[in-house]
Amino acid sequence: MFRDKTKVIHIGDRVIGGGNPILIQSMTNTPTEDVAATVAQILELESEGCEIIRCTVPTQAAADAIPEIKKQIHIPLVADIHFDHKMALAAAKERNIPIRVGVNSGSLETNLVDKYHGVTAEGIVESALDKVHMIEDAGYDNMVISIKSSDVMMCVKAHELIADKTPYPLHVGITEAGTLTRGNIKSSVGLGIILNQGIGDTIRVSLTGAPIEEVRSAKE
């Protein structure tokens, strides 16, 4: 069981990796800078069983909202940073916070697409491990890895490849899974195969629409 061997990572007051229970994640779809709306949505998700929540932080205003949001919720908050490292630094504001290294098949680097003659599981894994090694070279090892694809079997293969190559916990999900019915079918197949192999420490069922449906589906 790979998850029994992964590094233990503390996210707020929750613990993942090392055989600890698999935690359910979701993501807000409110503007993060709208503190009231974001907090209201997170509290609703908490009541449904969400254990880790992710908010997008594309602007300084969103980063500035993070401390106030954290004061009003009860589960760990992950700041989702896309392209601007300054937003990551602005959102962190304290030391030894876990870094989520996220690679999505839809934004794989051109050199890896060329190397593997297209978007492949091998390319996704190489991209993720490149970032992990960069962070390790800077003397940091408090990390969680997230590798995603909207192609179910590509996502499965990528997790199978990376599981024995790194000690870090894995967040598992099928990206852009789709509507309630389509997304649940794709996620059930993909997550079922991955989790059954003992791979994965947190999960998200990615659906279009209300995030609360993601939590309900993940619980099922």
Can you tell me about this structure?
The chain has a seven-stranded parallel β-sheet. A two-stranded antiparallel ribbon has the order 1-2. The protein is built from eight helices and nine strands. The chain has helices at 35-48, 60-72, 85-92, 110-115, 121-137, 152-163, 180-196, 211-219, and strands spanning 9-11, 14-16, 23-27, 52-56, 77-80, 99-104, 143-148, 170-172, 202-203. It is globular. The chain has 220 residues and is α/β, with parallel strands linked by helices. The protein is 44% helix and 17% strand. The two termini are 22 Å apart.
- Beta strands, count: 9
Order of helices and strands: EEEHEHEHEHHEHEHEH
Main beta sheet strand tally, sense and closure: 7 strands, parallel
Give the overall form: globular
What is the subunit organization of this protein? single chain
User: Helix fraction?
Assistant: 40-55%
* SS class: alpha/beta
Q: What is the percentage of strand-forming residues?
A: 15-25%
Nearest-integer average pLDDT? 94
Count of alpha/pi helices: 8
Please compute the radius of gyration using only Cα atoms. 17 Å
Our measurement of the CA-to-CA distance between the termini, rounded to an integer number of angstroms, reads 22 Å
